[in-house]
Specification:
The complex is a heterodimer. Chain A is an alpha/beta fold. Chain A is 45% helix and 15% strand. The chains are: A alpha/beta, B mainly alpha.
């Protein structure tokens, strides 16, 4: 039993959000540069923890160095960006700087006409980010700038591997399968996966695709939003064969990835599973889920193994990152200057110390506390190609449809073809 | 209302007498509302004043209703006719394309069927349960107030709290599994939230836990309104307890049951919070409802045109049900209040 007017309530909420965004004073004010002074509103997803402090310090320090520019930090819940950014960009006063994950989601926002092209303003320094900066480009134009980078790979427990008699992490899929068997023989759940959230399932399918598809095919598929190349079918088949070996925990379809000790991260953190395929942020997620103080020294990392016969490069990585975009009224140098400041080595070191990801500026790598993370960063930098998570690289609607189709496939329904069909359908809608 | 006026005319018995209201008293009280004795203006001024009253009293509510209920619905219907990502101006006009797409999507149909299953299960489980507990707790038994509070407590919990609580209880190897094992029913342990064939019924169990207290409290309120004399008289005539319940209590509880049914069906069609938090509609859409579908395809996918179409369809389903129910079922209960002008 719920209140009588839910559909109306949803509409009202949406309408109210639009109305509030349209006339709310919390949105960014158009920077008034009449007397040379500008105030920039900055929407970040750091609502708590160290990163929030880092951003506040950065805003203050930037103001000290540039007295004419005041930066007003407005932290928002991560999930709120999905619902708040569209109406904000449709309004007349969007935030001047806001969280940006790049890829197709960024591309979806460009037609609003509010997202600033930073190509010229960032050309002098964006090179330090490396090829990963491409994920924030749309049609070759730099509409966003990353402040950290992410890489997906296996986080594993060295103690459980040793218990099962595994000396070196698997380098091939065949080795991974035989290691799974060894772990099972030692009564250890080999791999935890948080299928309830869907996107962890997508990591699996996408990595199989990365190993099966040549880089050129991947790039073409991202550009044309089309998965008709046969290697994507093979990825589904390979995944099915792998899943038939039952490598995951029981009831994985209902397991969340990050919330609670029963989540996939919690299982690895508490020694209930030996490994999981997750982003570099995983140790930070695991830490609060266990009382084990030695967790960091127990954890090791290895990349997704090679698949024999796969046409893809065994060192291509799946990843992404976090960044910021500026809106058009703020496109004047102030915003770009601020983003440059955020990517400067001193700020980057603080970002890294906050344990949110790998630095966008490699010069800050020395600040990485966990040795395994240095390994991750080195792997990421050596990668010939960093493929952005498909659900971010594609337009949002297509990415969501892909995640849903892969999750359904994990539940034993659908086929390798149904994943590809879902993408084509979502694209044509 | 207009109590002061009544007193001016001096009809003390009109307000206090339990006798059937005499036409005189009625007229007097109406006359009594007149501000002054001026005979000529007696007819026109009250009418004018009443209209003014109506405008002044209704306008704010009407404005809110139009601005925040009707207008958004119309706007949503209009948005639903466009391929709109939520950015910039409305995308190209697509007519009923989105609506057709929603209705032909097997996942939406599946979600609709899930809602229907929840509707039927709510009625079949919560009604007898709520009614039974209400009949029990309507008697004079020790700890009655405590038991009532206990049965009603789940309904007072925020939906999100309920969902998180049951999510933890239903974890594999969690409290529910451990309890079953402890009493020797370990064989019944299931993957409550991960089994495609079971997850919807797990959700129904959670919804029943949360909402049967609401059925109970409504039934209790209904039972309070049934005069005890009726049952006493029946008992004197030799009716058994069951007969009295069956022939007297239940029929008199009819209006309450019908209103509960209405609230329950509309609520079941709109289930969202518990499902969203506990399963996200998964695995593989096995527990999806129309509203989880709406959030997934509207907000999460940035397809605001399509999402609006889903919202409008859900609204229409609920609205049509509400109209039909009002027309054919609730009509008797609301007659006089809604179908006849009062005053």
């Amino acid at each position: 039993m719920r209140s009588l007017r839910k559909p109306a309530a949803v509409t009202i909420a949406a309408a109210a959000a639009l109305a509030l965004a349209a006339c709310g004073s919390s949105g960014g004010s158009t920077p008034s540069s009449s007397n040379g002074k500008v105030t920039l509103t900055w929407w970040t997803n750091a609502t708590a923890g160290q990163l929030k402090t880092v951003w506040q310090q950065a805003a203050v320090a930037f103001h000290t160095a540039h007295p004419n520019v005041t930066i007003q930090v407005e932290p928002l819940q991560n999930e709120a960006f999905t619902t708040k950014v569209p109406p904000a960009l449709a309004s007349s006063n969007p935030p001047d700087i806001y969280q940006q994950w790049g890829g197709g989601q960024e591309a979806t926002q460009i037609p609003s006409g509010k997202v600033a092209d930073l190509s010229k303003l960032s050309s002098g320094w964006i090179g330090q980010v490396g090829s990963a900066a491409q994920a924030w480009q749309v049609n070759g134009k730099q509409y966003g700038v990353p402040y950290d980078l992410h890489t997906v790979g296996f986080w594993y427990r060295k103690d459980l591997f040793a218990k099962a008699g595994i000396t070196t992490p698997p380098a091939t899929l065949a080795a991974l399968e035989s290691d799974d068997a060894k772990l099972k023989a030692a009564h250890i759940v080999p791999i935890a996966v948080g299928s309830k959230d869907k996107w962890p399932d997508a990591f699996w399918w996408e990595y199989f695709a990365l190993r099966e598809c040549p880089t050129a095919t991947l790039k073409a598929a991202m550009k044309s939003v089309n998965l008709s190349a046969s290697c994507f079918m093979q990825a589904g088949d390979q995944l099915k064969t792998f899943m038939a070996t039952k490598p995951f925990q029981g009831g994985f379809l209902g397991t969340p990835s990050q919330v609670g000790a029963g989540s996939s991260a919690g299982m690895v953190a508490n020694g209930k599973a030996a490994m999981e395929l997750q982003g570099d942020w995983d140790p930070g997620v695991m830490a609060p889920l266990t009382s084990d103080k030695k967790l960091n020294s127990t954890l090791g990392w290895f990349p997704f193994p090679a698949i024999s016969g796969g046409a893809g490069s065994p060192t291509t990585t799946l990843g992404g990152g976090d960044g910021f975009s500026c809106t058009t009224p703020a496109a004047e140098p102030a915003c770009a200057q601020f983003l440059q400041y955020i990517d400067s080595t001193p700020v980057q070191k603080k970002v890294v110390a906050a344990n949110v990801g790998l630095p966008a500026n490699p010069a800050a790598a020395s600040a990485l506390s966990l040795p395994a993370l240095k390994q991750v960063l080195a792997y990421n930098h050596a990668a010939p190609y960093v493929q952005t998570y498909f659900d971010i690289a594609f337009p949002t609607s297509v990415g969501q449809a892909l995640d849903a189709a892969i999750a359904t496939y994990f539940a034993g329904q659908g086929s390798p073809q149904s994943i590809i069909t879902a993408v084509n359908q979502a694209k044509s809608q | 209302m207009a109590v002061a006026g009544d007193k001016d005319v001096g009809v003390p018995q009109a307000g206090t007498s339990p006798a059937p209201p005499s036409p005189v008293a009625g007229r007097l009280s109406r006359v009594g509302r007149l501000p002054g004795p001026g005979a000529g203006s007696r007819r026109s001024r009250p009418r004018l004043r009443r209209r003014l009253e109506l405008v002044v009293l209704l306008a704010p509510a009407l404005a809110l209703f139009v601005g925040f209920v009707l207008l958004p619905i119309v706007l949503a219907a209009w948005d639903g006719m466009h391929r709109w990502t939520g950015f910039g101006s409305l995308g190209p006009f697509a007519g009923l394309y989105n609506y057709r797409l929603v209705l032909s999507d097997p996942v939406f149909r599946e979600s609709f069927v899930h809602n229907l299953i929840i509707v039927v299960a709510s009625i079949l489980i919560q009604l007898p349960l709520g009614l039974g507990v209400a009949l029990l707790l309507n008697r004079r038994i020790r700890g009655r107030a405590f038991l009532r509070t206990l049965a009603f407590a789940p309904f007072v919990l925020p939906y999100a709290t309920t969902a998180v609580m049951w999510l933890l209880l239903l974890q594999p190897g969690g409290f529910v599994d451990q309890s079953l094992k402890a009493v020797g029913l370990g064989g019944l342990v299931q993957l409550w939230l991960a089994n495609l064939h079971l997850v919807l019924y797990t959700m129904i169990a959670v919804l029943t836990w949360q909402f049967f207290g609401f059925a109970m409290i409504l039934m209790l309120a209904g039972l309070q309104g049934i005069p005890g004399e009726l049952r006493e008289a029946a008992a004197l005539d030799g009716a058994s307890g069951w007969q009295a319940t069956r022939r007297i209590t239940l029929p008199l509880l009819g209006p309450t049951i019908r209103i509960w049914l209405f609230l329950s069906v509309v609520g079941s069609l709109q289930v969202f919070d518990q499902v969203w938090i506990m399963t996200g509609g998964g695995p593989a859409n096995a527990s999806s409802t129309m509203v989880t579908y709406l959030v997934q395809h509207g907000f999460q996918s940035y397809e605001f045109g399509y999402g609006s179409a889903v919202a409008v369809i859900i609204f229409l389903i609920c609205f049509i049900f509400a109209l039909l129910y009002q027309r054919f079922v609730l009509r008797r209960d609301t007659r006089g209040a809604l179908t006849r002008a009062v005053g």
